[in-house]
Amino acid sequence: MKTINLTTQRQAVYDIVRTAEDHPTAADVMNRLVERGHSFAYGTVYNSLRYLTDKDLIRELKLGETASRYDARTDDHQHIVCEVCGRVDEVMTAIPESWMTQVAEETGYEVAGAHIVVEGVCAECKSKRKK
Amino acid sequence: MKTINLTTQRQAVYDIVRTAEDHPTAADVMNRLVERGHSFAYGTVYNSLRYLTDKDLIRELKLGETASRYDARTDDHQHIVCEVCGRVDEVMTAIPESWMTQVAEETGYEVAGAHIVVEGVCAECKSKRKK
DNA sequence: ATTTCAATTTAGAATAAGTATAAATCTATT
DNA sequence: AATAGATTTATACTTATTCTAAATTGAAAT
Ligand SMILES: [Mn+2]
Ligand SMILES: [Mn+2]
Ligand SMILES: [Zn+2]
Ligand SMILES: [Zn+2]
Questions:
Q1: Is strand C in 7 Å reach of the CB of A3?
Q2: CB pair distance less than 8 Å for A112 and B92
């Protein structure tokens, strides 16, 4: 049931996402593939990203920008975006369970999870701004 | 400095968003304008939504769907989306201050705010499912 | 080894949401 | 009435992504 078929192109896409320090968009992945000497159809890159997402090897992130980003960390975590430079960092601190419970009570929903995008100014931009 | 110029079309768009029970997309707003006998250019609806957003009369929501939604409630609140029927409801339970502080510590960011989209199954879909 | 068939890749067309542009229309002020 | 700035309109364009149909690949069966 969980057969994973990593073709050359899927493997290459996966490698890009896995070794990325940031959270690359599909376009970022495309560029990095070219840098590494590949040239795949862009439909293939999108197909691969979706395949890898479906197989839970990567996660698709919608951070409120126009393009999705991709993340090889599939453990539960959230993100923080710098309003100044756009960099995206991990947020590992979990939102308190009590908050989720309260939201369930308030709304009558059965709560499954939450996507959180924190906004702020990163350390680097903070120090740059102090002059 | 805070002059607000509500033209006929801006007023009409604002009325749609203000009286909406849901959180309409630009396309929803378009359709409802037509229902009320208006016929504005596509661009005008987008311009109006942006104008109203800039003047803080409404808020633009990016809930991870392809299209933005609009909200006449401008006070601080979050949203919950039903995974089954797609309905969007308000979450008024505030995010714990302690969590924000902890995120700031963890990431080194100066935290300005957070956008949360909770996911789950609404009361209606929950009861429908029990048969 | 050759055939076969499903899965995959490819190039390019199509779609969806939103933005940009330039001409036409409004509106407030002289 | 004349002018000028703001706004609206129709339409072209952009960006991100999906769809399509033909070509290619590769494993399994002969
Ligand atoms: Mn991440
Ligand atoms: Mn709301
Ligand atoms: Zn920054
Ligand atoms: Zn529902």
A1: no
A2: no
Which fold would CATH assign to domain B75-131? Dna Ligase; domain 1 (3.30.1490)
Where are the domains positioned within chain B? Answer: 1-73, 75-131
User: Which CATH class for the A1-73 domain?
Assistant: mainly alpha
DSSP string of A111-126, one letter each residue: EEEEEEEEEEE-HHHH
State the Cα–Cα distance between residues A61 and A67, nearest whole angstrom.
9
User: Beta-carbon neighbour count of residue B33 at 10 Å?
Assistant: 20
Q: Number of A to B CB contacts under 8 A, please give it.
A: 117
CB contact B112 to A (< 8 Å): yes
Same CATH topology for A1-73 and A75-131? no
Q: Which residues contact A86 (CB under 8 A, 6 or more apart)?
A: none
Alpha carbon of B105 to ligand 3 centroid (Å)? 16
| B37: DSSP letter | T
- The strand pairing partners of A89, in sequence order, are A80
Encode pLDDT of A98-111 as tens digits: 999 999 999 999 99
The residue whose CA lies nearest the C1' of nucleotide C27 is B7
Please give the Cα distance from A107 to A104 (Å, whole number): 5
Integer Cα distance of A51 and A54 in angstroms = 5
Chain segment A48-98, per-residue pLDDT in tens? 999 999 999 999 999 999 999 999 999 999 999 999 999 999 999 999 999
